Amino acid sequence: DKNSVDFPPSGSALEEPNGLLAVGGDLSADRLKAAYRLGVFPWYEDHQPIMWWSPNPRSVLFLDNLKISRSLKKKLKRNEFQITCDTHFIEVMQHCADTPRHGQTGTWITEEMIQAYCQLHAEGIAHSIEAWHDGILVGGLYGLAIGKIFFGESMFSLRTDASKVAFVHLVSQLQSWDFALIDCQVSNPHLASLGAENIERDKFEQLLAGNLDRESIDSWIDYWKSNVKDTGTRT
């Protein structure tokens, strides 16, 4: 029903694969915002209808549990990358769509998806973190911030560890803003290496309920310029 942004109860999601909850609808800003507030997100490819997911378990990163390897810590101390926020959102999404990934032949970041999330970016809800090397965009990530939850969507690297450095800076900034966690959606080895863990859907929904209506940040780009911390000394 295009006049409704309601979703079925999360308990009705299929256990396999990855908690398929609903099919259809559109990617309007109102529907996307309603979905994320329920812990639901779209994930599909060009030849498919829009599919909505609510995985159980859910992969999340509690910010204090971030893991930084020795090699990454050394890279942070070298300040190899310049990190910015919300300066090239659409370019970050396009790179995430175009970057080849192991075991994938296509991309779920369709042109329709890019247009929809650019609208959320214009509303101050979707954000990008960019990593630059010698003036060239070489890595980054994007996601949504609602209340004190950051919903991570995708990241890319054209240079070793560029997205990881951007991610570490994001975590540091979110900690300073008293965010509760980063939603990582579905577990994978890359996220697990950074400290992400699986929790039950019920616990995730409780965390959403307690944090989505907390006061958020009005302008990320302004706060980022003045408050981003040195992450090279993090243990």
List the defining traits of the structure above.
8 helices, 10 strands, three-stranded antiparallel β-sheet, 34% helix, seven-stranded mixed β-sheet, alpha+beta
Record the SSE blueprint:
Elements: E1 20-23, H1 29-37, E2 41-42, E3 51-53, E4 58-62, H2 70-78, E5 82-85, H3 89-98, H4 111-122, E6 126-133, E7 136-146, E8 149-157, H5 162-176, E9 181-185, H6 189-193, E10 197-199, H7 201-211, H8 220-227
Parallel strand pairs: 8-9
Antiparallel strand pairs: 1-3, 2-3, 4-9, 4-10, 5-6, 6-7, 7-8
Discrete helix count = 8
Shape: globular
Order of helices and strands: EHEEEHEHHEEEHEHEHH
Query: Largest sheet at a glance?
Result: 7 strands, mixed
Q: What helical percentage do the residues reach?
A: 25-40%
Number of strands: 10
Radius of gyration, CA atoms, in whole angstroms: 17 Å
Mean pLDDT: 91
Low-pLDDT runs: 230-235
Which percent band covers the strand fraction? Answer: 15-25%
Structural class: alpha+beta
Q: How far from one another are the termini? A: 50 Å
